[in-house]
Amino acid sequence: xxxxxxxxxxxxxVLVELGKTNPNIVVLDADLSHSTMTRLFAxxxxxxxxxxxxxxxxxxxxxxxxxxxxxxxxxxxxxxxxSCRCFDQLRMCLSQPKLNVKIVxxxxxxxxxxxxxxxxxIEDLALFCSLPGFTVVVPADAIETKEAVKIAAGTYGPFYxxxxxxxxxxxxxxxxxxxxxKAVTMRPGKDATIIAxxxxxxxxxxxxxxxxxxxxxxxxxxxxxxxxxxxxxxxxAASETGAIIVAEEHLKHGGLGSRVARVVAREKPVPxxxxxxxxxxxxxxxxxxxxxxxxxxxxxxxxxxxxxxxxKVFR
Amino acid sequence: xxxxxxxxxxxxxxVRKLRRHVITMTAxxxxxxxxxxxxxxxxxxxxxxTVLRHDPKNPDWxxxxxxxxxxxxxxxxxxxxxxxxxxxxxxxxxxLRKLDSRLQGHPDRTLTPGVEMSSGxxxxxxxxxxxxxxxxxxxxxxxxxxxxxxxxECDEGQVWEAAMxxxxxxxxxxxxxxxxxxxxxxxxxxDIMNLEPLAAKWRAFGWEVLEIDGHDFQQILKxxxxxxxxxxxxxxxIAHTIKGKGVxxxxxxxxxxxxxxxxxxxxxxxxxxx
Lengths: 315, 274
Known about the structure:
The complex is a heterodimer of chains A (315) and B (274). Chain A folds into 2 domains: 4-169, 3-Layer(aba) Sandwich (Rossmann fold), CATH 3.40.50.970; 184-307, Rossmann fold. Chain A has helices at residues 7-21, 33-36, 39-44, 56-68, 79-85, 87-95, 124-129, 142-153, 200-213, 231-241, 256-267, 287-293, 298-308, and strands spanning 4-6, 25-29, 49-51, 72-76, 101-105, 135-137, 159-162, 167-169, 184-187, 192-196, 218-222, 225-227, 244-251, 272-277. In chain A, helix 9 packs across helix 13. The radius of gyration of chain A is 19 Å and the shape is globular. With 315 residues, chain A is of the alpha/beta class. Chain B has a single domain (8-272), classed as 3-Layer(aba) Sandwich (Rossmann fold). Chain B is built from 9 helices and 7 strands; from the N terminus they run H-H-E-H-H-E-H-E-E-E-H-H-E-H-E-H. Chain B has helices spanning 8-29, 34-51, 75-84, 125-138, 157-168, 189-192, 198-204, 217-229, 263-272, and strands at residues 66-69, 145-150, 174-180, 183-184, 187-188, 208-213, 235-240. In chain B, strands 1-2-3-7-6 form a 5-stranded parallel sheet, with helices on both faces. In chain B, strand 4 (183-184) and strand 5 (187-188) form a beta hairpin. In chain B, helix 1 (8-29) crosses helix 3 (75-84), helix 1 (8-29) packs antiparallel against helix 9 (263-272) and helix 2 packs parallel to helix 3 (75-84). Chain B is globular, with a radius of gyration of 17 Å.
C-alpha cells in the first residue's frame, strides 16, 4: 500500500516549523490560505501573516517591499494565478531586483481536476523558468516538499516552488536530503532513462518496475530543480542509456522536456520522447481521468519507453 | 516642522539646478521623459533636501526614510536629486541612458545608489511601498515611506489594489504623492481615462487626502508635515502640477512627455532656468 500525503499540507506544516526558529520569515496569501495551507502559519504567527485578499499582483509588490527590508518572504496562491496573473510583477519586482521572495504555489498542473481550465496551471513552469534569476523547484512528494521549502528559506533569491492539490504517493522516506540543483537517480538502469518531475516521478517508478518485469532496465531520474538544471546528470543519462523519456504535468513546450532537450541536443544527442500536455487546455474531470486523457499515466510512460528504445543509435 | 533644512529660497535655487540637469541629461541622451520630470521637480527637491531622513554615504541605512519613484519615467529628476545629494558624482548624470551607465532609462535598484526600487512598468510602486511600511511596523522602526505616482499611472488597477490594502493594513507610515499634471502620453487624462473625482476616490478607499499646489514649497512642506501627524491610515498628497514646469515651451506641452529637447531647445530651456 502506497502512502499518499498532500504536498501543500507538508508546506503548511514546515512553514510553522520555520517560523518558530526564524522570526524573519513572513507569509502572504491572496485569500486562499485554507487551500494553500498557509493558514497554519497564520494561526500560529498572526502578526507575521498578511492576507492580501484577491489581489495577487499587489501581493507580489508587497512581498518585494518586505524582502527589500530584510524579510524572508513566502507568498502563496494557486499556481495559475502566481504565474499567469502576476508575470509583470514577478519580472519587475522579484526577478530583476533579485529579491528574497519564495513563491510557493499549490494546485499546479491539471490534477486540480474538476475546477477546469481556469484553475489548471500548465504554463507556470515555462513562465517561471523564463525569468532570469529565479530558482524553480517541483517536489516529487511531501517529504521533498518539506526539505525544498527549508532549503529555499535559507537560500537568498527568488524561488518558485510548485505543489499539487491532491494527495500524492511518497517516493522518499524521512532520511531523504534534498540538494538544490541536483537530480536524484531513483533507480539505476541501462536501456533508457525516464526523467520525471513532480507527480510524474512516482508514475515513472511504477512504469520502470513494470518494464523490468518485461526485461527492460530503465533508469529513473527525479529532477526536482528545474532551474538551474542539473546538466551533468542529463548528459550522463544520455551517454549511459542512449534514450531519454521526459514526463511532466505541464505543456510540452517550455517545461522540463524543452529544457532537457536543449542540453541533450547540445551535448549528447540521443532519441527522446516527451510526455506532457499538447498545445491545448484540459477540461473538467477527475485528476486521474485528466491524466489519462492527456497521456500522463504509467501505461503511457511504459509505451513511450518501448517505442523509443528501437530508435536508439547504440544499444 | 522640518528643522535645519534649506530655506524656501534655497530650495528654489536647488530645484532650478535640478531642472537644468533634467534638460541637459535628456538632451545629451537624446531621449527620455522631461515633461513628467519637471512636474515632479519641486516635490522631489523638498523630499530629498528637507523631508527625508537619509544618509547618502550610507544608502542601505536601515532607519532611512524610503522614496519609491513609481512613475519610473521621471528617472532624470530622481537622478538629479540623488547626484546633488552626493549619492554619486554629478558628472555621472551625463551618462544617462548610455551603455554601461548606472543611470538606466528607468530606475534600477541593482545599479544606482539611492534608488530604492526598479520601476518603469507602471502601477507597482505603491504595493512595494506597503511592503516596506509593514516591515517598518514589524521591526518597530520609525522610518517613513514615500511613493511617487503619476496621475496617468492611476489608470492601472494595481494602484487601487494597493490603495485598498494600505488602508486595510493601516500603514500610517506610508505617504503617496500623485503628480497631478493632468496629462498622459496620449493626451489629457480627462480625454484618455477620466480619473475624477480623484480625491474622493482616495478618500473612499480610506486615505487621508491632501491637495496642494505641487510647485509651492510652502504648501509642499506643510503637507508632508501634516502627513506625519495622521495616525491609523495612510496619506495621499494630490499635487496639482504642470507638465514641463519651468520651461515656457514645454509647459503643458504633451510633446515633451517622452521626447528629449533638441540641442537648440535645450539651450533655450537652460537660459530660462538660469
